[in-house]
């Protein structure tokens, strides 16, 4: 037979640690003052990442799977969409009319 866990004893120990049982105080923690947030200096790496932000603005409102399928098909920027027609983009797996309207709202112009 295996030993049974003493639940009452475990509960009392837990309550003592929390300070709920008289005669046993909870451990006091030192008050920590929150540090003022530091503003990081802008580095070259952050400046170079700005063009990528423009590319992600094109895909705003689309799921990650749709974004990945468009990038895999070669549509990574507005210039790529300008070279293709709506039918070409609709041919990509997972892209439908709702995704096309979302792309248009983000400023994408398609070739006619």
Automatic annotation (TrEMBL):
GO terms for molecular function: nucleotide binding. Coiled coil: none annotated. Gene3D superfamilies: 5' to 3' exonuclease, C-terminal subdomain. Signal peptide: none annotated. Residues 16-50 are annotated as: Disordered. Residues 29-48 have a biased composition (Low complexity). This is Helix-hairpin-helix domain-containing protein. It comes from Streptococcus sobrinus W1703. The lineage of its organism: Bacteria, Bacillati, Bacillota, Bacilli, Lactobacillales.
